What does this fold into?
Amino acid sequence: MKIDFSNLKFDDKGLIPAIVQDVYSDEVLMLAYMNGESLAKTVETGYTWFWSRSRQELWNKGATSGHMQKVESITYDCDGDALLVKVDQTGAACHTGHRSCFFNPLWNEGEGRNLPVPEPDNESIYGVLAELYRVILYKREHGGEKSYTKYLFMKGQDKILKKVGEESAETIIASKNNSRQEVIYEMSDLWYHCMVLLAYHGITPAELLHELSGRRSKENNSKY
It folds into this structure.
């Protein structure tokens, strides 16, 4: 596929920065550089290719680790000197094993204090939910005949809502039984089916967490 690079401004080394973002959660995963050849290969293959400034060679993200980035879209900014690449990320984007390369806390607004930044990897609640949501979306489209997730979407909204109701009731019973392990097990089932319901409506976990964060930030919020 031939693409027009005429609106892009590569630097004097023929490079342009590419910000890589998770297409489902909007989490910023990494920053790398592309040249004309790597950008063309990215478009041609549907997976990210970059130019390594240290090794002076092309590299295909995830070719050795298996943590591939399936490209969903590429846009450029108003000045044409930066790219935004939205991807379906498999596994970790960072070579350290973190979901995102941006995990080192520096500063957060909050009474002038340095506050810890939640680590956005697969061990954080955000990372776990984002990865589960990604799997649900994948199974919805590509799940086999034995895929339970695929089955739920095929049956439709009423079936999904029925399962949310059933799992809610089972969570209530587990709590009444005062069984910690039962609560964990049943709540996990409930959360999974709630995530399926979010996917049914095209709502991402990031939107849900943003709503919760907004409620917390409102002074004297009656919901908390």
